[in-house]
Amino acid sequence: MKEKVISWPDQKKAGMRKKGEAIRLSGNIVPSSFLCDWAKGKKYFIKTYGCQANVRDSEILTAYFNLLNMELADNEASADIIIFNTCAIREHAETRIRGELGRLKPLSRQNPDLIIGLCGCMAHESEPLKDLVATNKHLNLVFGTHNIHEIYSLIENCVKEKARVFNVTSTVDTVVEEYPEARFDTYKAFVNIMYGCDKFCTYCIVPYTRGQQRSRKVECVVEEVKRLKEKGFMEVTLLGQNVNAYGLDFDNQEYDFAYLLEQVALTGIPRIRFTSPHPADFKENVFKVMAKYKNIMPALHLPMQSGSTNVLNKMNRRYSREEYINLVKMLRSYVSDVRLTTDIIVAFPTETEEDFLETLSIVKELHFASAYTFIYSPRVGTPASRMVDNLTPEIKQDRFNRLAKVVDEEATIDGKKCVNSIVEVLFDSIDDVIGFIKGYDEYNRLVHVKADPSLIGKIKKVKIIESHTYSYIGELIEK
Ligand code: SAH
Ligand code: SF4
Ligand code: F3S
Fold it and tell me: How many angstroms is it from 203 CA to the middle of ligand 1?
């Protein structure tokens, strides 16, 4: 098949940063009559991997397909276009995607017109992508995280020219402020407040896949939240790779994250969360705003990565063990009931047993309610991938297991503590167990309650009666 390369990713360029504020674009694109004709009676299927940023991107792709009047296919076999929205954060994520993509070969043999597309973070890894494209000839559309609003012209290219089309832009100084609307949930929505990341933690691929930091305008974010509220949404999660660096890329830095958070709180939307903040970018003013507004939830996911200053330095995290501890103390002084969760990487290159013990001890000292734990995974093109990885697979697994045990112990303690407490649950769905509905409390704990499904979409007072550590059983105490 013919190949049309509009742009091929260049990881080195993707790592470059230029000064100046982003150019604002609208993503409200009108499809051509050719594409509308092509789309008639056709179905799409999207498989989403990775973080909330990808979930939000898949919603946007869904909105573009909806505008073409395309239907969501029940499965891959009945789809005319299948999109893999991929994640590159760890080797494991990529291996899974490669496997699933390979599985589609027979399907594309049966239907030569089938479009199989790949977007998301894997599309930005220049070297691995070459191999992926060579070994998966049935993959006929690849586009990057900055090319989502170009989906119509990309599909049109594929169809008209019967070509494999590649378009992964690496450098980007634009922000798409407006997209057509589609949400997967009925009561909770993700709202992007910024794109990209300028932090360059040495292990991380994200600054190369999502590009340089670009913040959205305060007015655009607030408008989006107001629209969601009018439609009956009860909760928004403000999204960004590093939300508290919000606004640092504006020419005139008069707006920071605390300001934006306050403006969102003032919309009166019942619940606000945000993820993820970076410990080095926290200013006290954010905690002040969190303490001031009841609709900002008392739950914070604050990625720590390691409890050893030595390792944090090698990771380029820009804070020490003590600074992280002090930050948590400051947070708790403003929001005393805050539920704190984190991300931790073990077995970063050259991590010693002493370094690792510092991670174990900080988990006990700070009492995280839960933590996502990972074994370090080298990513091509990142500085850490060039460091000497001197740890054996056995040591890595052993540290991971020991950490998981301590994290579970802390989570169990936290879980037991909240039994008998009264919380407010926003019910969002029916549980598989007959007669139960479920939702999240203000602390972001999953709570199951035996109650009528008519309560879905409502916030109700619930007494926690049982802890299963990562989920809870509650009793409705409000009609
Ligand atoms: N922007 C977010 C993190 C996004 S990635 C933040 O900085 O908070 C989510 C988590 O994946 C990270 O917090 C880190 O713990 C983990 N992670 C990232 N790169 C990794 C790698 N190369 N190996 C293992 N874990 C990694
Ligand atoms: Fe990756 Fe660090 Fe940016 Fe998070 S802050 S996305 S870990 S580079
Ligand atoms: Fe994965 Fe990209 Fe998110 S690498 S974690 S999908 S930003």
Answer: 8
